[in-house]
Structure formats: structure tokens, C-alpha cells
């Protein structure tokens, strides 16, 4: 069963919390990783790799730059995750 | 078929001594900020680099190597005349031929040793160390001098805000000689040429010569792709090197990764789940990224400052342009 959008966002919140120390409640759909959540380009790579493992999805380097907001990432994951 | 005599070498090899040379001029981030729009805080948070050394005109690749080599030879307790091989890992010696190793060998007073350069980017030291070990075990040379040396300031685009602060200059050297037991483990190494564009010289010298471009060639890289590869793929290689040596992370005393960027080092340590007792080389803070020189320079500093001691078990891993990598477990000299 693929993760729901709600599960994806809460999973991303846990990941961002773990990597950048941002409170989980601050991780909302419209928040920008760099501007609002203080996740810089290198931390973003760590977030992406953690998300790949958690949601069984591949996020190539070329696509990472398009994931500006939490919503972008959640949508990308929902579209590309392998249904279990 | 004529019978060929087998070669007779030492049963095993070890690193016997280490030496380093850092150029006199220390360059703080303030100097870098004269040519890029950035801040000290930004540079430190992205790279952990506070200062680096830049070589003067006199501090050539050869001159820095001779200094480092002299210290390594003295530390090893051998004489220059005993050196049977000189291997220089570098990407920033700007005279294509002859190999700078021959000049260095002559200047240190070695007697007609085998001498050649190795181009394997930031993995150059590991590549050269592996060859040196092979030469000692094969009997082609009893003692081999391995040098990692760079003048990356010559290959830095000071107006590129993504890389201007990264690179530094320096030389690190070790002497590899015979051992009665294994003190350099199996090397896990390789290349991924499909990722050649990830870290590369911007253009070929000939393109610059022909006026295709007006900017002098410099090293450029795709930061995020390099970071992902360096942290997550290289952590696997590091683990393979431990497995190949038959030890676990708990057995390690020291971790000396290529000093590319503090963020890569920190993330690798986390990904590898290294125990807290393992001393981690963080020489990048004051030396910057010196490519092939970074591992021996970091090793020398850990030993000189007492953070590591002779006999410690260290995991060394180099990775960089190619992409290439080399990891092995060694006993520190």
C-alpha cells in the first residue's frame, strides 16, 4: 500500500526534524525547504536520501532542484513511489 | 618455455613514516570574499573551512613535495638512497612531461628509483599507496615514497561562489616499506566514468590555447550530486574496506576520509555509524580541500598533535574526480 499524502508529509516532517532540527509542526505543505525551514542544499540531499529509503522512491539529482517546497516533495513522492 | 624466476619481495608492507608541507601563506575566508558575494558564515556552514594555505611562486609542486618527502623519510628512519620507487599523485603539476616524480626523486637524493606520477584526483593517495604496497610485496622496490601534492589554487575560479573557498595547496608524503605482518589492508577501489562530469576541469588546455574560451581552466563540480555520492556511496565503499580487512568499526581507532568538505565528513561518520571512540580527521577546517594531498596531510597532523598514535588502526578513503575512489585500512606509522 503506497503512503498517503498525509503519511508522506508527516514522514518528511520527521526526516527534516532529524536532519535539520526543525520542529515537526513547522513542516507544512507550503513551506520552502531553503527559505522557511533552513534546509540548505547539502541537507536537502540528506533529506532526499532519507525520503528515498522511507518511501521506496528514487529521486535523481536532476529532480532534487525542482523540489522547492514540502508540497513539491510530497507530490513527487506520491507520484513516483512504488506501491507495496 | 624458459622458466622465469619468481620475484622476491617482503611478505607484507606498511607505512613507515609520514611528513607534510603546508605553504606559508594562510588564507582566511575574508580573502575569498574579495572575489565572491558570500559570507564567512555561509562558507563555514557549507564547508567547515575557515582557512586554507596557498602556495607562493617558490612553493612549487616539486618544492613542496621535497619538503614533505624529507620529513617522511626521516620519520621512517631510512635514508634517501634506500628509496627504490617514487610515486607522485597530483592533478595540478602543470608541466605535462616529464613526470614530476623524477625531479623530486633526484632532489631528495634517491638513486635512480622507479619514478612516475599518478592522476586519480582526490583518490590519488590511495591509488599510489596501493601501487607502492604492490611494489614492496613484489620486491620491485624495498622502500617506496608516496607523495600526494597539489597547487589547487592554480585551478580555482576565484569568482565561482560554489568552489572559490574550497581548495588549498600542500604536500603529504609517506614511506612504504616491508612488514612482517599485514599493516596495509586490501584496497577497495574503482571508477565510475559515467559520472565524469560531476567533478571536472571546466575545459581542456587546448580549448583555452585555441581561444574557444577566455577563462583559464578551473575545477568545477555539481555540489549536490558530489555530496550524495561522497556520503552515501562512499560509506558503502568504506564498509567494504573494513570487511576486506576483516575488522569492524569497533576495531578502528582513526578515520581519515579525504578532506573534501566538513559536511561530507560529518555525514559519512553518521552514515557509517562510527563509534564515538574513533578519532575523525577534520583537517579541512584549516587546510581546505587539497585533493591527493589531503589524506597524508591529515594523517601527519593527527600524529603530530597526539590525536592519533603510532600503531593505531586507521580507515583511509579517498574519492573524487573520475569519479574514482580508494579505501583501505592501515596501521599508522
From TrEMBL, chain A:
Example of a GO MF term: acyl carrier activity
Keywords per UniProt: Cytoplasm, Fatty acid biosynthesis, Fatty acid metabolism, Lipid biosynthesis, Lipid metabolism, Phosphopantetheine, Phosphoprotein
Gene Ontology CC terms, in alphabetical order: cytosol; membrane
Pathway where this protein functions: Lipid metabolism; fatty acid biosynthesis
Posttranslational mods: 4'-phosphopantetheine is transferred from CoA to a specific serine of apo-ACP by AcpS. This modification is essential for activity because fatty acids are bound in thioester linkage to the sulfhydryl of the prosthetic group.
O-(pantetheine 4'-phosphoryl)serine found at: 41
Iron recorded as keyword: no
InterPro entries the UniProt entry points to: ACP (IPR003231), ACP-like_sf (IPR036736), EAL_dom (IPR001633), PP-bd_ACP (IPR009081)
Localization (cell): Cytoplasm
Main location: cytoplasm
Carrier domain location: 3-81
GO annotation, biological process: lipid A biosynthetic process
PROSITE patterns given in the database record: CARRIER (PS50075), EAL (PS50883)
Residues covered by the EAL domain: 1-84
Coiled coil: none
Function per UniProt: Carrier of the growing fatty acid chain in fatty acid biosynthesis. Acyl carrier protein involved in meromycolate extension.
Family as reported in the entry's similarity comment: Belongs to the acyl carrier protein (ACP) family.
Record protein name field: Acyl carrier protein
Organism: Streptomyces inusitatus
UniProtKB/TrEMBL annotation, chain B:
GO terms assigned for molecular function: 3-oxoacyl-[acyl-carrier-protein] synthase activity; beta-ketoacyl-acyl-carrier-protein synthase III activity
GO cellular component, one term: cytoplasm
Active site: 122, 258, 289
GO biological process: fatty acid biosynthetic process; secondary metabolite biosynthetic process
Catalysed transformations (reactions): malonyl-[ACP] + acetyl-CoA + H(+) = 3-oxobutanoyl-[ACP] + CO2 + CoA
SUPFAM superfamilies named in the record: Thiolase-like
Subcellular location: Cytoplasm
Protein name listed in UniProt: Beta-ketoacyl-[acyl-carrier-protein] synthase III
Organism: Streptomyces inusitatus
Lineage per the UniProt record: Bacteria, Bacillati, Actinomycetota, Actinomycetes, Kitasatosporales
Amino acid at each position: 500500500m503506497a503512503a498517503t499524502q498525509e503519511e508522506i508529509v508527516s514522514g518528511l516532517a520527521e526526516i527534516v526534524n532529524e536532519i535539520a532540527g526543525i520542529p515537526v509542526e513547522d513542516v507544512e505543505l507550503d513551506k520552502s525547504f531553503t527559505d522557511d525551514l533552513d534546509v540548505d542544499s547539502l541537507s536537502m540531499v540528506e533529506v532526499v536520501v532519507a525520503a528515498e529509503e522511507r518511501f521506496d522512491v528514487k529521486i535523481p539529482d536532476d529532480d532534487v532542484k525542482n523540489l522547492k517546497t514540502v508540497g513539491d516533495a510530497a507530490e513527487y513522492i506520491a507520484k513516483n513511489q512504488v506501491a507495496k | 618455455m624458459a622458466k622465469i624466476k619468481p620475484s622476491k619481495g617482503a611478505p607484507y608492507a606498511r607505512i613507515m613514516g609520514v611528513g607534510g608541507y603546508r605553504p606559508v601563506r594562510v588564507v582566511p575566508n575574508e580573502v575569498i570574499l574579495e572575489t565572491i558575494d558570500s559570507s564567512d558564515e555561509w562558507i563555514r556552514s557549507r564547508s567547515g573551512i575557515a582557512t586554507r594555505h596557498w602556495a607562493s611562486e617558490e612553493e612549487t609542486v616539486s618544492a613542496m613535495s621535497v619538503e614533505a618527502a624529507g620529513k617522511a623519510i626521516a620519520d621512517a628512519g631510512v635514508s634517501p638512497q634506500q628509496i627504490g620507487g617514487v610515486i607522485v599523485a597530483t592533478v595540478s603539476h602543470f608541466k605535462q612531461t616529464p613526470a614530476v616524480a623524477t625531479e623530486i626523486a633526484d632532489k631528495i637524493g634517491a638513486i635512480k628509483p622507479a619514478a612516475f606520477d599518478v592522476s586519480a584526483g582526490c583518490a590519488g593517495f590511495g591509488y599510489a599507496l596501493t601501487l607502492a604496497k604492490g611494489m614492496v610485496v613484489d620486491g620491485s622496490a624495498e622502500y617506496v615514497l608516496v607523495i600526494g601534492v597539489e597547487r589547487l589554487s592554480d585551478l580555482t575560479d576565484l569568482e565561482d561562489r560554489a568552489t572559490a573557498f574550497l581548495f588549498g595547496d600542500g604536500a603529504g608524503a609517506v614511506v612504504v616499506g616491508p612488514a612482517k605482518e599485514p599493516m596495509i589492508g586490501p584496497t577497495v577501489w574503482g571508477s565510475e566514468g559515467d559520472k565524469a562530469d560531476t567533478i571536472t576541469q571546466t575545459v581542456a588546455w587546448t580549448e583555452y590555447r585555441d581561444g574557444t574560451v577566455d577563462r583559464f581552466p578551473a575545477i568545477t563540480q555539481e555540489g549536490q550530486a558530489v555530496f550524495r555520492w561522497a556520503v552515501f556511496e562512499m560509506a558503502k565503499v568504506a564498509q567494504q574496506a573494513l570487511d576486506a580487512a576483516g575488522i569492524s568499526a569497533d576495531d578502528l581507532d582513526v578515520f581519515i576520509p579525504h578532506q573534501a568538505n566538513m559536511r561530507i565528513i560529518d555525514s559519512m561518520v553518521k552514515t557509517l555509524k562510527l563509534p564515538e571512540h574513533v578519532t575523525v580527521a577534520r583537517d579541512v577546517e584549516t587546510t581546505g580541500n587539497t585533493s591527493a594531498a589531503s589524506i597524508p596531510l591529515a594523517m601527519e597532523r593527527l600524529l603530530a598533535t597526539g590525536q592519533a598514535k603510532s600503531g593505531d588502526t586507521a580507515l583511509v578513503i579517498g574519492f573524487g574526480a573520475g569519479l574514482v575512489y580508494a579505501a583501505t585500512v592501515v596501521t599508522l606509522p
